[in-house]
TrEMBL record:
Pfam families: NAD_binding_10. It comes from Bradyrhizobium japonicum. The keyword Protease does not apply. This is Uncharacterized protein YbjT (DUF2867 family). The keyword Ubl conjugation does not apply. Residues 7-172 form the NAD(P)-binding domain.
C-alpha cells in the first residue's frame, strides 16, 4: 500500500515510516519540509494521489490555546477533505488517552476537536489514543521546577515508549479501519513522580522529585483517571528500565 505519514519526520513519524517500509509498503514522510502543509493545504493533493492510507501524527508548533486549536482544526479539516477527493480508504490519527477527561487542558481540547472532525468525515478512520511518551519525561520535569525541586502530580501515570507507539500505529495502519478508538499505554502504572524521579536519576540529575496531589499537568489538575486508559488497552512491551538503559 501507499501510506502517507503526515508529520513523518518527527519523533513518532520517522519511526513509523521506517517500520512501514520494513513491511514492504510505500511509506511517504510528508511535512512542511517536503512541501506538504496540512494547515494551509499546500501539497496535499499531490502527496495523496494514489494513497491507500494516511496516518496523521503531526504536532502543533505552538501550544498556546488558540493556536493549538486552530492547528488541529484546520489541518484535520483539510486532510479529510483531500483524502475524500483522493479516494483514501483509511485515515489513522494519533491522539491522547483521556482527551475528554481533562477539559482544562487546552491541548487535550484541541485533540478532542480533531477527533470530532475525523469522526464526522466520510473517510473510514481509526483513532489511536496514546499515553505520554517516555521521551518527554525530562521535558515535563523542567516545567515543574519549584525552588530547586521538581514538583509533579502524585496521580497514577502509565507512559509508553515512542518505539511502541510506532509499532501499534503500524499495526493499525496496515489493518482494516476500526471506525472507532483504541487506547495504547505502557506496561507499567505508577505514581507520576516515580517515573519522573527514575528518569532524572538515570541522567545523573540529583534534584529532589516531590509528588503533590495538587500539582498541575501542563496547567491542569489531574487525578488517577486523567491520563490512563479506563478500559481495555493495547500495552507496549518496553518497561521504563529497558528504555532508560538505552540512554
Amino acid at each position: 500500500m501507499k501510506i502517507v505519514v503526515i508529520g513523518g519526520t518527527g519523533l513518532i513519524g520517522s519511526k513509523l515510516v521506517t517500520k512501514l517500509k520494513q513491511h514492504g509498503h510505500e511509506a511517504v514522510a510528508a511535512s512542511p519540509k517536503s512541501g506538504v502543509n496540512a494547515v494551509t493545504g499546500e501539497g496535499l493533493a499531490a502527496v495523496l494521489a494514489g494513497a491507500d492510507v494516511v496516518v496523521d501524527v503531526a504536532n502543533a508548533p505552538s501550544w498556546e490555546p488558540a493556536a493549538v486549536l486552530d492547528f488541529f482544526q484546520r489541518s484535520s479539516t483539510n486532510l479529510v477533505a483531500a483524502e475524500a477527493a483522493a479516494g483514501v480508504k483509511h485515515h489513522v490519527a494519533l491522539s491522547i488517552v483521556g482527551t475528554e477527561r481533562s477539559p482544562d487542558n487546552s491541548y487535550f481540547r484541541a485533540k478532542l476537536a480533531q477527533e470530532t472532525i475525523i469522526k464526522s468525515s466520510s473517510v473510514p478512520y481509526s483513532i489511536v489514543r496514546a499515553t505520554q511518551f517516555f521521551e518527554f519525561l525530562g521535558a515535563i520535569a523542567e516545567t515543574a521546577v519549584v525552588e530547586g525541586k521538581i514538583v509533579v502530580p502524585s496521580a497514577l501515570f502509565q507512559p509508553i515508549a515512542a518505539e511502541d507507539v510506532a509499532d501499534r500505529l503500524a499495526e493499525v495502519a496496515m489493518g482494516r479501519p476500526l471506525n472507532g478508538t483504541i487506547d495504547i499505554a505502557g506496561p507499567e502504572k505508577a505514581p507520576f513522580y516515580e517515573f519522573i524521579a527514575r528518569r532524572l536519576k538515570a541522567s545523573g540529575d540529583a534534584r529532589p522529585v516531590v509528588g503533590d496531589p495538587k500539582a498541575p499537568y501542563y496547567g491542569a489538575p489531574i487525578d488517577d483517571t486523567s491520563l490512563n486508559p479506563l478500559g481495555e488497552a493495547r500495552l507496549g512491551k518496553t518497561p521504563l528500565a529497558t528504555w532508560l538503559a538505552r540512554l
